[in-house]
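Annex B. Sample input.
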Amino acid sequence: MLGRVVSPQMGRVLRHRDRGCRFPGCERRRWLKAHHLVHWAEGGRTDLGNLVLLCHAHHRLLHEGRWSTSGHPEHDLRFHDPGGRRLGRFVPRFGPEWGKGQPYHGLVMKAGVLALQGDFREHAAMFERLGAVPVEVRTERDLADVDCLAIPGGESTTIGRLARGHGLVDPLRARIDGGMPVLGTCAGLIVLARRVVGGQPLLGVLDVTVRRNAYGRQVDSFEADVLLSGDEGTQHVRGVFIRAPVIQDAGPRVRVLAEHAGLPAVVEQDNMLAAVFHPELAGEDRLHRRLLERA
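Annex B, continued. Sample output.
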């Protein structure tokens, strides 16, 4: 069929096949358009081998944003950015300029948050504020789909028990050993630590010794600024200390980026970043931003 109009019958088959927008990462299921992979004016056929469903935003991105496709819609459909790079785990995001009719070409990574227990929602909100797509990680499949990971504060023993129950310990260790950037805050630091005073380490990937609840009980919680060192000099970072652990010692590959009361408060080792406090509860985004830049 050489006409451009999709018949009602073909539209129903297309909706049954695609279920929603076919652009990677898009979950829109309403207000969809049938897109010709080869434009109808260039001889593209109006049939299932040349049609995919796209939401209004991604339809315009292909027509006006110099994106392209390749492959067949039923088995190997691929999307390519204006530079010809294939879209992998990255998904596009639309800024305020989209409302003015201008497609936004930025690619945003999927930032995972281990969502078994603790303040994972605050980490997800922080990633979203920074323009990343937050993904709550509860399964090995979730973990495989993210580009970086935050391990939140909470109860480290509970997080460990649930991680074992969900079969996540080995996959987490493998992704981190493979270079995935990771941020651990408070209990997340304990989850990463190689040595835990009075307890058993979980992942054992960060060469530090930690002591849990070293800053006191819940009623002893406080906020404080620490001076963070980095490539751009030093910056004050605000953190909330809630039953925070203490880093008693660190291995030779561990770099201390900040201290509090003479003890390490933020450390870095290869692709791992960890803090004894909660930056996300203070609305502090510098550590999350550092993680995203690494990813």
